[in-house]
What we know:
Layout: H1 3-6, E1 8-18, E2 24-29, E3 37-38, E4 41-43, H2 50-62, E5 67-72, E6 77-80, E7 94-106, E8 123-129, H3 131-134, H4 144-164
Parallel strand pairs: 1-7
Antiparallel strand pairs: 1-4, 2-3, 2-8, 5-7, 6-7
Amino acid sequence: MSLRETLAYRPNVGIVLFNGKGxxxxxxxxxxxxxxxxxxxxxxxxxxxxxxAVWREMKEEIGTNNATMIGKRExxxxxxxxxxxxxxxxxxxxxxxxxxxxxxxxxGQDSDIRLDTFEEIEFTTWRWVPPEDVLSGKYNLGFKxxxxxxxxxxxxxxYRAASRA
Length: 165
């Protein structure tokens, strides 16, 4: 049995934050070399429900909860770490992550977004990105490119449905 097969998936929440123009919040990781960009996400603590975790993670990672939840991708979204990160990333304890993804509409001002309010800074900079630019190659998504290729169609369908409602 390989090391990967002995490891579990880490419970995690993902945040897709849209502004009033329909652009998506993306940020550059502080802890990875190579100018890697992603959506905010984070682990679910022991005894915490995913919806509690997503609000906590939003506050920790971008410094604000000025948002309204507009949708959720149903079910768990699983992804495996690449082979070279097994036993290293995620404290070496997980093969990948099982995520619940939540969609939000940002209700604050850009100045409300603060990347420096939590002791462990996740991101160095951020921007609003048109959805078509997420997978265009303008942003280095690292190994999460495959994740976002599978995830983004579901996210955009949920966003469009919420926008029509």
